[in-house]
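Marked as duplicate of an earlier ticket. Keeping the data here for the record.
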Amino acid sequence: MTNNTFTNQVAIVTGAGQGIGFELARQLSLNGASVLLNDMDPPLSDKAAESIKQEGGVCLSMPGDASSVPFIKSMVAKAVESFGSVTMAVANAGLSLYGDFFEYPESDFDRVMKVNLGGSFYLAQAVSNQIIKQKSGGSIVFVSSVTGHQALKDLAAYAVTKSGLEMLAKNLVVELSPYNISVNAVAPGATLTERTLTYEDYINAWSAITPMGRPANVNDIANAVLFLLSPASRHITGQSIVIDGGWTSVSPAPPNK
């Protein structure tokens, strides 16, 4: 389904070469937004943007490291140069490096923090400064995770970042509300993507422990994010929405990753 909900809006979506990020970029574009699509992998980023354009959307590929502050600033500048403004951002780029807490490498910890927390923080900063300059108002959404709510083995560093994103959304209400900028987070549970489908028996394992009987699909997550970006949610800010089919209410661990 397509409509004009986001006509005249400009969005930056990071980590959008595939999976949840791609579907977010796709739906935003097909619902009227101009989208700058970012992914670390240049061929994947270009292919994703081209696919959206072939469906009739307006989408520009900008591959690069979404944890780099200079690159983040260049994304905002490119969006303004190409589309005239920036009014929305989805900080979707993230990295999950599993590891035993007792032997977790400093290099892995630093990388997870830089990508998940640092990239999201500085994307919000750069986009907010542009929105304030425009005096346009806007919306920001962070992509968190159920691991920010419930513990899973070997994901301590990742969980810290995801919980931190939800607190960041809450804290930025104080900073951004005077400028008519909403800031929220979504926390997906198990979701069917190109990456998760490489895990052995992923669908059956998560279907068995999810009260709603199945993992999420990318549309389940995208629909919630689009709501938070849309005029329908204009009085919602500082909130986190868990999208997990009820898993965090019972929280059994999966038999494998």
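See parent ticket for discussion. Strands lie at 10-13, 34-37, 58-61, 88-91, 138-143, 181-188, 191-192, 216-217, 240-243.
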